[in-house]
Amino acid sequence: MKIITWNCNMAFRKKADLMLAQQPDILVVPECEHLDKHVFGGKAVATTNAPSNASTKAPTSAAANTPVNASASSAAKTPANASASAAANAPAKTSANAPASATTNARAGASVPKPTDSLWFGHNLNKGLGVFSYSDFRFQVLDVYDDQLKMIVPIAVSNGRFSFTLFAIWANNPNDPDGQYVEQVWKALQRYDALIKNTRTILIGDFNSNTIWDRPRREGNHSAVVKKLAAKGVHSLYHHYFNLVQGSELHPTLYLYRKKERPYHLDYCFASNDFLKRLTKVEVGEFQTWSAYSDHMPLIISFK
How many helices (H) and strands (E) does the chain have? Predict the structure, then answer.
């Protein structure tokens, strides 16, 4: 199974084939436009009712608005205190590069294969959270979904043989006085505590956070999120794969204003221990390949 998250910086319909060249089974896309704006396989994506609302392996050592109706077929930036001095190093050579043909088609807005299933959440029809299946996995938004948590959505994923809980994340709620970025993830961990288990659990997307911006005396900073998930047996797959600690990332997932000298790591995939044992590869897209399409780089996770 391959699961990818990519904050597409809007207009995903013009870039979808670029991402499909990576052959995802499940795709989580912050800043994605409403499905009605998409054309897949020459036809609009069908919708049904839903609830309202790449890096090479390193040596072993130790970033929304109120949701409206979600559609289904079955601005987030770095925090204001981001600084270049806290940036991660330049990425290593990756394989998350789209073929030239995909690049050409993306610019032309060519139609791409219709997903098996899809969901969308948002208020701004040009900029919400899209979730797509390009495999036999189907989605069902869980009844406990709380739209006050904006773009953090618990989804039951199943193909009839295997099922798990997926939290699709775009942490961005500018109307919350408690904090619009990682504070949203922290609140979701409290709200969905019973759903987050040490088996069959994945949280993936744009968290808009990093431990370099921790406010030590403030509840719910990035390190607190990581610690709470770890206590549940849920860990960052990027950090596990590259044997890195939080805040020491070598592969940026965002280049602020698409400037290579402003790199940060804000996109994550946290998963339970059973997924960790099946992990085969973690990739982060390269600046030279993806910066023409978004300020974010795709995070690509592969399991056996």
Answer: 7, 15
Residues 6+ apart with CB under 8 A from 7: 29, 30, 31, 63, 76, 170, 206, 254, 267, 294, 295, 296
Amino acid type, 56: T
Q: Per residue in 169-208, pLDDT tens?
A: 999 987 877 777 899 999 999 999 999 999 999 999 999 9
What number does CATH give the domain 2-303?
3.60.10.10
Helices (H), 8-99: 16-20
pTM here is 0.81
Closest to 185 in 3D by CA, of 68, 87, 266: 266
Digit-coded pLDDT (tens) for 256-269: 999 999 999 999 99
Calpha distance 20→9 (Å, rounded): 16
pLDDT at 97: 57
CA distance 223 to 213: 9
Give the amino acid at 99. P
Helix (H) or strand (E) holding 149: none
- Say how far apart CA 227 and CA 223 lie, in whole Å: 6
